[in-house]
Design brief:
231 residues, alpha/beta, seven-stranded mixed β-sheet, 42% helix
Length: 231
């Protein structure tokens, strides 16, 4: 059964999470990420849940990734093989466009997140459907989490770019302007200044356009947009 979103993202790291009704794995991941986001300075490592995730929940995860990248935090993620499936709504393409480094593995053993080298979150029971999550500190437990992540990362494969066939709708006026400025080589900040929109809004627009174009890089997006005469 698809996971459903719910709950709020705490601002500070809580203690051990109690049972969460329904889609505990994805909710726990997002809650824990919210707690870790303020701590991260250099890097966040993620193992994404293997269970199906509904669109609203994917959007929240993508937004968290964008916020971390905006702060200059490197985000590396390992997800299930089906993350580049069209049923996932271009989530892999958007995450790549936002700056998240993403690889796929067959059946991730559990979800987890690691902030730098001093904090992590893991499920209280990886086998339980309604497990909560626990916040870890200390060199040994966090190092063990990092080791597991690096092993998965070593096994991961790059996700195939979407072929863009799922959405042939042309860009609207604002999107055309963003594409034009992007093709001129302007930075996100310069595009925001020219369009009057926030940097975050422009990055979300670019990520959505890249997903529709089936592009995994901005250069590829510009070439494909030109081929389709979008610019």
């Amino acid at each position: 059964m698809p996971l459903r979103s719910g709950g709020s993202i705490p601002a500070q790291p809580p203690g051990p999470g109690g049972p969460v009704p329904g889609p505990a794995r994805s909710i726990g991941l997002l809650d824990g990420l919210g707690a870790l986001a303020r701590r991260a300075v250099r890097e966040i490592l993620l193992v994404l849940p293997s269970a199906p995730v509904e669109p609203r929940l994917r959007a929240r995860l993508e937004l968290l990734g964008a916020e971390l990248v905006d702060r200059g935090v490197r985000v590396r993620a390992v997800g299930p093989e089906n993350l580049d499936d069209p049923a996932c709504g271009g989530s892999a393409d958007r995450m790549a466009a936002l700056g998240v480094e993403l690889l796929a593995v067959n059946q991730p053993p559990l979800w987890m997140a690691v902030a730098d080298r001093d904090a992590a979150i893991v499920p209280t029971d990886p086998l339980a459907e309604q497990s909560g999550w626990v916040f870890l500190r200390g060199v040994a437990p966090v190092a063990a989490c990092r080791l597991l992540f690096e092993q998965l990362w070593e096994q991961g494969r790059e996700l195939k770019p979407s072929d863009g066939s799922g959405d042939d709708s042309g860009p609207d006026r604002r999107e055309r302007e963003v594409l034009r400025l992007l093709s001129e080589g302007l930075t996100d900040e310069a595009i925001a200044a020219r369009t009057g929109l926030s940097v975050r809004t422009n990055r979300r627009t670019i990520a959505d356009l890249m997903a529709r174009l089936g592009a995994r890089s901005r250069f590829q997006a510009g070439a494909e947009a030109a081929r389709r005469t979008w610019v």
